[in-house]
Amino acid sequence: MSARDVVILSRQLSTLFEAKVPVVDSLKLLALEAENPLLRRKLSELLADIQGGIPMSSAMAKHPDVFSKFYVNMVRSGEESGKLNEVFSYLADYLQRSYELTSKAKNALYYPAFVIFTFFSVMILMMVFVIPRLSEILKDVGHDLPIYTRIVIGTSEFLRSYGIFFLMALVAGIIFLWRYTRTEIGRSVISRLQLSFPYVGKLYKKLYLSRVTDNLETLLSSGVSVVRALEITADVVGNRIYEKILKDSLEAVKGGVPISEVFSRYKEIPPLVSQMIRVGEESGKLGFILKTLAGFYKREVDNSVENLVSLIEPVMIIALGLAVGILLVSILGPIYNITSAI
Fold it and tell me: What is the DSSP string of 159-208?
């Protein structure tokens, strides 16, 4: 199921629980109205387990592809505190914020990715089908060709002769990288690379800080203990570097050390965050401080994405224009010179 389906489901459950509709009746209603067949089946299984006497959180834990550890623990805290309607309200708001943030970052890259893919596709077609015919004309004339023209013709001949092997190697490389990113070492390397790129690294840093503070605030607001909130957030943050920071904080908190003191040891955590959390710990308003930080970094991510998109478009147009210009000059320039001499 898509993240959007889970967001809508959580919002519907929140609304039904606020209206004092019983859990079983709410799930029956949503299962009947669900358009997604997979969602309908999951809700039916969830309903059967709950009617069989299993707590809602335990029933949801059987479907990790739909309900994350974060989701299950939030529901469990609601069951224990008797505030399930409030917890689902927190969940719906949190998932909607998270979905909007992630969707905005992804959607911003769709257009550049489509343009770049189309450009390379057209360039390859020209190299394979158009350039060889023009290069035959240049070779028949026998004139000396500029170095850039010879490079273009050589690239065309390479793609015609070894293109299939190049494509196979490219596919094999992509599969290898995909498998490598599923290993512990690969995930750690990717996590480090995400934070190392000049501009994109800052965007990822803000994204993960927004996720960490938002997760912690949502969990603490629903009654989850600090230790358990750190543990759950470490599981769902999505970056090995921040996962390690949170797990170190977890062990430190067990030993009586404040979260802010542990955060201040890492360069990945800005001083602003550790100082604000220290204020929250000392004033007893940690939830409020985390909510403020989450809102701040969400706005920072929004602004960074907008700036990145506005930067990508002109750079992409210039790069594509230069590539097309070089290709045209490399082939049409010699042909023009030959026709002029005649």
Answer: HHHHHHHHHHHHHHHHHHHHHHTTSHHHHHHHHHHHTTSTTHHHHHHHHH
Q: Is 58 inside a domain boundary?
A: yes
Residue given tokens 């224009």 in the structure block = 321
CA angle at 126 for the pair 120 and 130, rounded to the nearest 5°: 180
> Distance between CA 332 and CA 167 in Å, rounded?
28
| pLDDT band, very low/low/confident/very high, at 340 (cuts 50, 70, 90) | low
Residues 303/309/315/321 CA torsion (nearest 10 deg): -160
Distances (CA, A) of 208 to 101, 125, 203, 298: 11, 40, 9, 10
Element (H, E) at 74: helix 69-81
Reference 230, options 253, 198, 209; nearest CA is: 253
Instruction: Give the pTM.
Output: 0.74
**pLDDT exceeds cutoff 70 at 268:** yes
The reply to whether 194 and 292 lie within a common domain is yes
Structural domain boundaries, residue 229: 114-342
pLDDT in tens, 130-172: 788 877 777 776 667 778 788 888 888 888 888 888 889 989 9
